[in-house]
Every structure is written in C-alpha cells, then in structure tokens.
Amino acid sequence: GAGVSQSPSNKVTEKGKDVELRCDPISGHTALYWYRQSLGQGLEFLIYFQGNSAPDKSGLPSDRFSAERTGGSVSTLTIQRTQQEDSAVYLCASSPDSGSPYEQYFGPGTRLTVT
Amino acid sequence: EDKVVQSPLSLVVHEGDTVTLNCSYEVTNFRSLLWYKQEKKAPTFLFMLTSSGIEKKSGRLSSILDKKELFSILNITATQTGDSAVYLCAVEAGDSGGSNYKLTFGKGTLLTVNP
Questions:
Q1: pLDDT exceeds cutoff 50 at B40
Q2: With an 8 Å Cβ cutoff, is A112 touching chain B?
Q3: Is the separation of the CB atoms in A89 and A77 below 8 Å?
C-alpha cells in the first residue's frame, strides 16, 4: 500500500512567481493536513481538511496561501507571489480520522526554495 | 530509505507516573532530531537535539540523543492529565550545504494520562 506522496519533491522558483504543491493522501483517509517546516525551526500547522472542507485555515500565514482538496483525495497548496520567507519544506499528512491526530502519516515533503 | 521508529505506539499511565518515550532512526547525513507534542492539530515543538549525550530539559520534560546507537528518549516526570497527547519524533537529514534537506517523522506515541 502506498503512503502519502507529495510532488514535486524539490521546487526552486523565483520571487514573485506562483507555485502549486500537490499531496496524494493514503486512500480512504478523510483528514489531510498541511504543515511547513522552516530550516531549524518547529513544525508550523497551515491548514487541515476533513473531506473536501477546511474547518481550520487559521495557520495560513497570509492571503497569498490557499489550499483545496477535491474528491476527498488529492490536495493542492498554492502560494501566489512567492517571497523568500516562503522557503521551507512543506509537509502533508493524512489521517483516517480528524478527531485525533493519532495515526497521522506524513509524506516526504516538498522543499521549496524561493530565490 | 530514511526511517524513524517510535515506541511504544501508545501508553496509558496515571498522574504522577514517569514515562519514557523512544525514538530510533536510520537516516543518511543526520543533522538533528526533533520532538513535538501534538494535541488537537498543530504539533508543538519541544526539543531539537544535535549532539550526543547532552540532555535538554524543559520543566518536567527532558530528552537526550545517542548518535552512536541512533536513538533518542523523551522523559516526562510527574505526569499530568495535560500531558496527554501524541508525541512525534522527527529526524532532519541532509548535507551541510543545505541541499537534499529532508524531514522524516515517526508515527508518534499516543500518551494518555489518567487522573
């Protein structure tokens, strides 16, 4: 059985460009989480989905960040007009039950570098 | 393939008990090991460990890293019900130049502290 996959694994982009990060959760997992890990810092929650809806968007750092999930499966995180401070590893995780973060399976991450 | 294994998967204790959570890893180009506490959604950063044998302490929590045996432990003394959470271990790996940076998480230990 495949785990959580993310693409691309690495992305280098110029400041001001838009980027789209993709997450494929484990099949059947209803909850999906996006996090950001900046080098040497703690894990920062961005947003989570229960099915296709996002009950909690409080972690999105600015209105340049948005995310959607379709069909209760694949999710995309979009960052518009990227800034250098957006450089980080973006992690996606899925869980069979959003009621508890237990059994949260993480993907390998997308390393975003904004030059 | 980088691997982080946490044990036990779950643990139930009574208030006042002392617990030890384990994290073992196999990664290429180890940089640091991180511990997080996760309750509702966003994991909270606890410790970052980079050097062997140096204990990090914060209140009732402490952690130590053994880079020779490739493991870390997280100790919680005099547990309280508020310590109930999932404790995540993650290992940061990559070369010194900052490329090929990768964060690998364990699946977590679910700690339940009963009154």
A1: yes
A2: no
A3: no
Answer whether A105 touches B (CB < 8 Å): yes
| Greatest Cα-to-Cα distance within chain A, rounded to the nearest angstrom | 38
- Which residue in chain B is spatially nearest to A32 when comparing CA positions? B41
Question: Using CA atoms, how far apart are residues B34 and A39, in angstroms rounded to an integer?
Answer: 12
Mean pLDDT to the nearest integer, B88-111: 71
Instruction: Tokens for B91, please give them.
Output: 């290992």
Cβ pair A105:B107 closer than 8 A: yes
Average pLDDT across chain B, whole number: 87
Q: What is the dihedral of CA B105, B107, B109, B110, to 10 degrees?
A: 130
The answer to whether the Cβ–Cβ distance between B41 and A39 falls below 8 Å is no
Pairwise pLDDT comparison (B59 vs B90), residue with the higher score: B59
Establish how many alpha carbons lie within 13 A of residue A92's alpha carbon, considering only the half-sphere containing its beta carbon: 29
Q: Could you tell me which chain A residue has the CA closest to the CA of B99?
A: A111
Euclidean distance between CA atoms A28 and A25, whole angstroms: 8
**Residue A11 corresponds to which amino acid?**
K
